[in-house]
Amino acid sequence: MIRKSIVITFIAGLMAMFTSAQSVNEAGELFNQAIQEYQAENYATAATKFRQAADMAEQVGDDGIDLMIKAEQQWVISLYNEGKKHYSNKDYNEAVTAFSAAAEAARKVRDEKTLDASNTYIAGIKTAFGNNYLRDDDHANALRYYDEAIEAKPGYIKAYYGKGLAYKKAGDLENMKAQLEQVLEMGEADEKTADRARGVLATTFLNEGAMALQNGDFSTAVQNLETSVKYNETEPQAFYYLALSYNGSGEYDKAIEAATAAVEKGFSQPGDAWFEVGKAHEAKGNSAAACEAYGKVTSGNNVEAAKYQREQVLKCG
Questions:
Q1: DSSP state of 312
Q2: Is residue 89 classed exposed, middle or buried when 0-12, 13-18 and 19+ CB atoms within 10 A define those classes?
Q3: The pLDDT of residue 76
Q4: Based on C-alpha coordinates, what's the Rg of the chain?
Q5: Nearest alpha carbon to residue 162 among 187, 185, 139
């Protein structure tokens, strides 16, 4: 009885080994079919067969581990290349679908490199969609796609830049500033985009300051212009407008400093800047310094006004 039991067990073992070998061979055949599809650039079909081969190899157990690992790696690569194929053909919606599948597969097998690459493609495509809507002044849809880009790849700097522009076009300067500040914080990843963000911030607040100055709102003008020069310390126009605003708000020392800076930074109308220096010194009661500054007004819009102050008001020698 014992001998019969041993024989039965032996036979069962042989059958299991035979079944295991057969399953591994079947999985291997699927794997080879997948390779042929891959080489023909039929990546979607290849991905399906690699996945089937991996699942079959997994069911085998220890004997199928190596094949399972190889098949899963090729499964991820096939899905990724399917995305690249659609991207090259400018089928961007299909590309997003394929890259999303690749990202999910890469996450499953812990392939961080392909996961990051897939998400980078998704973020780039979503950002491009956002840019298209932004050009059409559809701020809501632009922001939606920029947010989807950031969801795919949180550090994708161009999406934050796009959000900043969308908020600017919508007149929401507070959120514009917040988004573009994030671009500056991530600037090492893309210095070109960071420089563009810095330029947008400087120009936007320069224009806001100029409008406030024109309306006689010196406090708001100062606030905006000080923000502008924070992002661009080389723009002489901003310092000239600051000089006007400081003089208007009675901050005469700051007006002298700003006007002098405008001249030093190459302001196209230095005479106008020197006139603001003269006004500030005159308001402070420093006639000698005012006369000296007015004397430098030899061009621009205030030549006659400076001459009048020197000759009729201050009686400069």
A1: I
A2: exposed
A3: 96
A4: 35
A5: 139
